[in-house]
Amino acid sequence: MEVFVNEKIGADDAGAVGTKEKPFKTPAYALFKVPEAKLIVAKETEQGEEYVDISPSALKKAKKGAESLKKKEEKARKQAEEAAAKDAEENAKMLEAMKITIVEDKSLPPAKKIKIMSIGKHIEERVKVQGWIHRLRLQKGLAFIVLRDGTGYVQCVLSGDLANAYQTLSLTIESTLSIYGTIRKLPEGKSAPGGVELAVDYYEVVGLAPSGKESFTNKIQEGTDPSILMDQRHLTLRGETLSAVMKVRAALLAAIRRVYIEESVTEVTPPCMVQTQVEGGSTLFKMDYYGEEAFLTQSSQLYLETCLPALGDVYCIQESFRAEKSHTRRHLSEYTHIEAELAFVTFDDLLSHIERVITKTVQYVLEDPTAGPLVKQLNPGFVAPQLPFKRMQYIEALDWLNENGIPNEDGEKFKFGDDIAEAAERKMTDTIGVPILLTRFPVEIKSFYMKKCVDDPRVTESVDVLMPTVGEITGGSMRIEDTQELLEGFKREGIDAKSYYWFVDQRIYGTCPHGGYGLGTERILAWLCNRFTVRDCSLYPRFTGRCKP
Ligand code: 4AD
């Protein structure tokens, strides 16, 4: 039987039958469809297109091709058969599963509602835990659920009818459950979070999360683009790493509050909407405040200073805002600023206070039963800082940088007055490898309020605390106490002093030597938890181009 093949107008699908009008596209496909065919192929000649008998070599090739198409077809058929059998088996299983109803055995002792963190205190007791399915493994006759309630994780084991029920077979990651069961210590050689597991006797589904395309694991996967992960921050927060950092963050804030209580420093809550600047106009977020110009605060320092006469030493934990144009790993547009202000102190007192607060805070975090192990997990090599910190003057840092061949921003040797930019600062800190109190910065690269050193008026009584891997985590200084000198500072910076009358009054109505500092919460966390960027240490980070979710 003659079968026609035409590479140009033919088709290798159901539309082709092998006639001149509806030829196949390839000889292999033609033979596959019509094994007994006599192949006639289209050929370009000078007279135009012509149909000729296939050449022996092309026929040999076509036979081979047809053979492999046949094999492929057989394989696909087998696979389809297997899938259909599996579906049937699955359907039968589901039908069986549907017959099982899960009911609570009312003869069991009443279950005590507990949080997962306290599970170790209830061994052999019947309890009720509620949370989200963190991990799920279904096996023949057994189901393993790792339940998460924010306070911890527990492995729950379902067996028999509970494991085989339709309700269990349709569970999905991130569904919420109320689980009832008895807490058992794990036998030797088995492992699960906390060394215990919950032998489940009954459970209820509170909220079933989607399966398939909309499933949680489809939404965020390892290796997903960071900006998509940021869009899904509300979901990524549920992950083990990010939630661990947030727990350390909570412990850090609690620890520093405890240290401030011990140091007799009182907490205040200054406003976030202000009409003054603290750290330069270029990073101010402007807003319209009932027709007046206002800003989101860059620092609560000025307000803290005004509290000294009323409350003594004060601190606040408040959001600060910086319109940072640069994309760096340590800059956010909004960050949690821990600031303190101390009255009647010397510069040395201030430095000792700062290193003490940092050291004690870290100590309390490490001693915390929740956060301590999480820091070890996130940052196994972490070494707690020791007192006293290394002290280094700005001028000494310049010498160190020049000796170590680290150039300034223009690619030249550092000279007095140069800013030590982020990269150079981090290189130096990482090489030295211990916390550094870097002091006495030049007047021109620091803020208007900083007090000049008596022995060298070119420099200020200022300090940056530098930590390995992050660099600057704290900036502080002694403040100008003299009204006239302060007003000159405003003038130098081109700031209209009128809006600052309340701040100037702090000097007029009983001045005193005082100083303070600001500590970036996300920066100290990046150091403590070994995170590459401060973005991983903020709940919903804000930075250039991102103000959602
Ligand atoms: O050095 P800064 O700008 O100092 C002040 O704002 C002072 N008024 C604080 C004071 O003396 N009360 O900021 C202090 C700290 C920095 O060391 C850094 O840890 C953090 O705040 N910080 C930032 N953290 C994240 N993103 C940013 N854009 C930050 N800017 C400063």
What do these coordinates show?
It is a single chain. The protein has helices at about 25-35, 55-100, 160-165, 165-170, 215-220, 225-230, 235, 240-260, 300-310, 345-365, 370-380, 395-405, 420-430, 485-495, 500-510, 520-530, and strands spanning about 1-5, 40-45, 50-55, 110-115, 125-140, 140-150, 155-160, 175-185, 195-205, 265, 275, 285-290, 290-295, 315-320, 335-345, 390-395, 435-440, 450-455, 455-460, 460-465, 470-480, 515-520. It is an alpha+beta fold and about 550 residues long. The chain folds into three domains: about 1-85 and about 90-95, 2-Layer Sandwich (so0334 like fold), CATH 3.30.1910.20; about 110-215, Nucleic acid-binding proteins (OB fold (Dihydrolipoamide Acetyltransferase, E2P), Beta Barrel), CATH 2.40.50.140; about 240-390 and about 480-535, Bira Bifunctional Protein, Domain 2 (BirA Bifunctional Protein, domain 2, 2-Layer Sandwich). The mean pLDDT is about 95. Helix 8 crosses helix 11 (about 370-380). The chain is built from 16 helices and 22 strands. An eight-stranded mixed sheet has the order 10-14-15-22-21-20-17-16, with helices on both faces. The structure holds 4-amino-1,4-dioxobutan-2-aminium adenosine-5'-monophosphate. 4-amino-1,4-dioxobutan-2-aminium adenosine-5'-monophosphate binds near residues 324, 332, 476 and 516. It comes from Ogataea parapolymorpha (strain ATCC 26012 / BCRC 20466 / JCM 22074 / NRRL Y-7560 / DL-1). GO terms for molecular function: asparagine-tRNA ligase activity; ATP binding; sequence-specific mRNA binding. InterPro entries: Aa-tRNA-synt_II, aa-tRNA-synth_II, aa-tRNA-synth_II/BPL/LPL, Asn-tRNA-ligase, AsnRS_N, Asp/Asn-tRNA-synth_IIb, NA-bd_OB-fold, NA-bd_OB_tRNA. Belongs to the class-II aminoacyl-tRNA synthetase family. This is asparagine--tRNA ligase.
